[in-house]
Amino acid sequence: MTKYLLAALAGALSLACMGTPGIARDTGPVTNLPLPRFVSMKASEGNARRGPSLTHRIDWVFKQRDMPLQITAEHGHWRRVEDREGQGGWVHYSLLSGVRTVIVEKDMLSLHMRPDVETPVTAALEAGVIARLGKCDLEWCQLKSGGYRGWAPKSRLWGVKPDEVRD
Length: 167
Fold this sequence. Notes:
Elements: H1 2-18, E1 37-41, E2 46-49, E3 58-62, E4 68-75, E5 78-82, E6 88-92, E7 96-97, E8 101-104, E9 109-112, E10 121-125, E11 130-136, E12 140-145, E13 148-153, E14 157-158
Antiparallel strand pairs: 1-4, 1-7, 2-3, 4-5, 5-6, 8-11, 8-14, 9-10, 11-12, 12-13
């Protein structure tokens, strides 16, 4: 009898938490994709609004194509995004791309031939450079930028989660 009572209580608790504003969601209610997640700017310019509609005031304008952004919320065709400095707002989904990019956070970041500091350096990237994100293991990510390709430590990049692995 107690097994059934515990199961009923667990079910009631999970139903009650689904509508509770204080409970964090792991997926977006519109796309069912993970939240937060990284995307990039598809357009060369995009308005970030105070709320998820054209009637809301523009708070910020993103002016860099391929800039990595983090989606933190979804509402209809709108996504709440933040840049690496925490600036942002609600952006129409048509301005965003699933193509992954990162921003180099360490000046003169060395790109190595393989994910190992002992391998030859193929290029050095300045801080603020936007690079296309390729494969990632737990410590390194493969990048492409300006015709150069190589591996860099994940800890020197913004736009990829510390525990993210990409094939």
